[in-house]
UniProtKB/TrEMBL annotation:
Belongs to the class II aldolase/RraA-like family. Its cofactor is a divalent metal cation. Homotrimer. It comes from Lipingzhangella rawalii. It holds the Pfam family RraA-like. SUPFAM superfamilies: RraA-like. This is 4-hydroxy-4-methyl-2-oxoglutarate aldolase.
Length: 166
């Protein structure tokens, strides 16, 4: 397992659930893995958008400081909210990972990048780039509300979220 921010290999999601039980939330959405890092963790930042990745691009082009961007794309797979260029910017800017409740593109290239990426699926179609949406607001999917500042832990078994760093 490739290590990333805060040694996520020491934070297996199953072990976190066993240790913390109802104190942490487990996302039941079945995501696919795309980035090179299969395990990643960090403080949560959020974007809510629909078929428009302008805000995703803007945020991932800023300093990430090991954070994980959680993008609520409404579950739409009609167009991709992340591709290879934006993901490469995320790597360059120190992001730990990106979780997209929507689609990505350039999946073969995403596999080569030092980034954790989870999404519902793929679509080669580009999204709009108008910047429509909201940043750092609570977003909910998979039975979990993701709030900015919470901690997200992700591995092959899924995603768990804690109010504080574990």
């Amino acid at each position: 397992m490739t290590e990333t921010t805060d040694s996520p290999s020491n934070h297996a999601t199953a072990d976190l659930i066993d240790a913390h039980g109802s104190e942490i939330d487990s996302c039941h959405t079945q995501f696919r893995q795309f980035g090179r890092h299969r395990s990643f963790c960090g403080p949560v930042r959020t974007v809510r958008c629909h078929e428009d990745n302008g805000l995703v691009k803007e945020i991932l082009n800023s300093a990430g400081h090991g954070a994980v961007l959680v993008v609520d794309g409404g579950g739409s797979v009609r167009s991709a909210l992340l591709g290879d260029l934006i993901a490469a910017a995320a790597v360059d800017n120190g992001w730990s990972g990106v979780v997209i409740h929507g689609a990505v593109r350039d999946s073969a290239t995403l596999e080569t990048l030092d980034l954790g990426v989870k999404a519902l699926g793929t679509n080669p179609r580009k999204s709009d780039k108008d910047g429509a949406g909201r940043v750092d607001v609570p977003v909910t999917f998979g039975g979990v509300t993701f709030n900015p500042g919470q901690w997200l832990y992700s591995d092959e078994d899924g995603i768990v979220v804690s109010a504080t760093q574990l």
